UniProtKB/TrEMBL annotation:
Family membership noted in the UniProt record: Belongs to the parvalbumin family.
Annotated residues for binding of Ca(2+) 2: D91, D93, D95, K97, E102
Protein name as annotated: Parvalbumin
Function of the molecule: In muscle, parvalbumin is thought to be involved in relaxation after contraction. It binds two calcium ions.
Organism: Apteryx mantelli (North Island brown kiwi)
Positions contributing to Ca(2+) 1 binding: D52, D54, S56, F58, E63
């Protein structure tokens, strides 16, 4: 399964355009524009599985840097501050990584 099986390619493109400039990525805005925040819990968990590049059950900080590229291969990498902000917003238990439940809470908040 690919992300475009769940999210519209035009919505993904619009979300990526919105955060083209370095340090302009806002997780809440990205989730809204891409349509992810309107998806069901099971769809969000499927997106999580796609984003979890190493299939460890978590999205670690080194995977977060490439977050936008998981939506479109030509997208930019997140800056260090964007990566840390995204991790801090989702990592509720402080283990330094984002689990499926934490990701779902972030997307749907």
């Amino acid at each position: 399964m690919s992300i475009t099986d769940i999210l519209s390619p035009s919505d993904i493109a619009a979300a990526l355009r919105d955060c083209q400039a370095p340090d302009s990525f806002s997780p809440k805005k990205f989730f809204q524009i891409s349509g992810m925040s309107k998806k069901s819990s099971s769809q969000i968990k499927e997106i999580f599985r796609i984003l979890d590049n190493d299939q460890s059950g978590f999205i670690e900080e080194d995977e977060l840097k490439y977050f936008l590229q998981r939506f479109e291969c030509g997208a930019r990498v997140l800056t260090s501050s964007e990566t840390k902000t995204l991790l801090a917003a989702a990592d509720h238990d402080g283990d330094g990584k984002i689990g499926a439940e934490e990701f779902q809470e972030l997307v749907q908040s």
